[in-house]
Amino acid sequence: MILKKYVIAEHLKPFLLGLCVFAFVLFMGNMAELVKIVMTQKGEAILVLKLFLYLVPFVISYSLPMAVLLSILLAFGKLNSDNEIIAIKASGLNPLHLIAPVILLSLFLSLLCVKLNDSVLPKTTYAARKLIVSLGVRKPSIFLQQRTVIEDFENYVIYIWKVKGNYLYTINITKLKEEGLPTSIYARKGEILPGPDEGIITLKLMHGTIDESRLDELYHSDRTSFDEYYVELKLPPQEASVSKRPKDMTIRELKQKIVEFEKKKIDISPLLTEINRKLSLAFASLSFALIASPLALRVKKSGKSTGFGLSLFLIIIYYLLFTAGQALGEKGILPEVSVWAPNIILGSLGAILLCKTK
After folding, report:
1. Is residue 312 part of a domain?
2. Which of 109, 213, 243, 277 lies in the 20 to 30 Å Cα band around 45?
3. In a domain, 142, yes or no
4. Which pLDDT does position 153 carry in this prediction?
5. CA–CA separation, 315 vs 321, rounded Å?
6. Could you tell me which residues come within 8 angstroms of residue 105 by beta carbon, excluding any fewer than 6 positions away?
7. Has residue 345 been placed in a domain?
8. Coil, strand or helix: which one is 152?
9. CB 293 within 8 A of CB 76
10. Given this model, what pLDDT does residue 294 score?
11. Is 37 part of any domain?
12. SS3 for 236?
């Protein structure tokens, strides 16, 4: 029991260090653009503080797993370099006795992150977006964001893969009708143009197709190709309620939205991916603990530089796999599984290494 308390105590300092470092980096990366929006709209300093507070759950959600990873690598690395692991083995104890409390603690943090990602984070991201819109920001970029389901425009559901300035790439638009099935519009590229009147923007779509579904034949549609096609979108009035994006929804709300989209024949892949993204990211702490614990015990050359280097390498690997899985899921390729790829790969590899730990 004393040994387990000692191991947990050794993790506390590097954990807090990692949490502060990663949180600072994430805050700086996100606050700059938000402060710029507030200042250009002549907002008050209190609004900057509000946006800062709204960022806290997001920062914790991402920095907590990274802090867990760093603390394990630094703490076990220190024990290894001080030959304390050898002493523990010589006393007849299996190093797994040291790892068990760390794994259990990371599991607890993962379950805590499930609540954070599903309840707290959606509320704060939605509140931050409503605050920005309330400032009178009417730029199309506020509404036409990449890789999210957009329902701000009446009778349109839009999904854009990439936004770069006024240019859009891989655009999927569903035009809803009061009667009959919706029309699906796809374009490889697009451009945001000024509309004919204030409060209206025009999307110039290039190289795409229009699919008109048939009521008499559910699985057939009439397809028309185009080189250029124009869609006029009316910006929602400033006093209008801000629609929720998938990231602003809880898992329960996302499931309700999936039922609604299925009835309207709208692609539900982004919504399924978002549900699993919330859960997968929450269990990143457990995955990092599983892979980091046996690695830290095996690394002969230990030290802070080694721990930071190895943690940075694993973080990059994890989030590359995570981003790739999210991209595949949003395109409709195994949306229920794809974002779990980094957890499965790192967790399985860590479990194998743990079984070989003696």
Report:
1. yes
2. 243
3. no
4. 84
5. 10
6. 8, 11, 289
7. yes
8. coil
9. yes
10. 86
11. yes
12. coil
Whether residue 108 is found in the same domain as residue 17? yes
User: Residues 123, 214: one domain?
Assistant: no
Domain count, the chain: 2
Residue 330 has which token pair? 């949003």
Confidence tier at 293 by pLDDT (50, 70, 90): confident
The answer to whether residues 6 and 129 belong to one domain is yes
Looking at the structure, do residues 320 and 284 belong to the same domain, yes or no?
Answer: yes
CA-only gyration radius of the chain, Å: 24
Taking the model in full, what pTM does it have? 0.82
Burial track 49-78 (b if 16+ CB lie within 10 A, e otherwise) = ebbbebbebbbbbbbbbbbbbbbbbbbbbb
Gap between the Cα atoms of 223 and 229, Å rounded: 14
- Asked whether residue 34 falls in the same domain as residue 125, the answer is yes
Highest mean pLDDT among 49-58, 63-72, 92-101, 347-356: 63-72
Q: What percent of the chain has pLDDT over 70?
A: 80
Same domain, 222 and 327: no
> Containing H/E element for 82?
none
- Check whether residue 114 and residue 157 sit in a common domain: no
Indicate whether 344 pLDDT > 60: yes
pLDDT, averaged across the chain: 83
* Final residue in a domain of this structure, among 237, 255, 282: 237
Domain residue limits at 52: 2-135+273-355
Q: Which helix (H) or strand (E) holds 315?
A: helix 304-330
Give the angle 107-23-81 at the CA atoms, nearest 5°: 65
Cβ(79)–Cβ(14) under 8 Å?
Answer: no
Can you list the alpha helix ranges (DSSP code H) found in 82-144? 84-90, 96-115, 121-134, 140-143
Residues 129 and 166 in one domain: no
182-214 confidence digits (pLDDT tens): 889 999 999 988 777 777 888 999 999 998 876
Distances 357 to 92, 98, 133, 349, 351 between C-alpha atoms, Å: 14, 11, 54, 13, 10
Distances, alpha carbon 10 to alpha carbons 89, 98, 176, in Å:
18, 11, 58
Helix (H) / strand (E) element for 289: namely helix 284-298
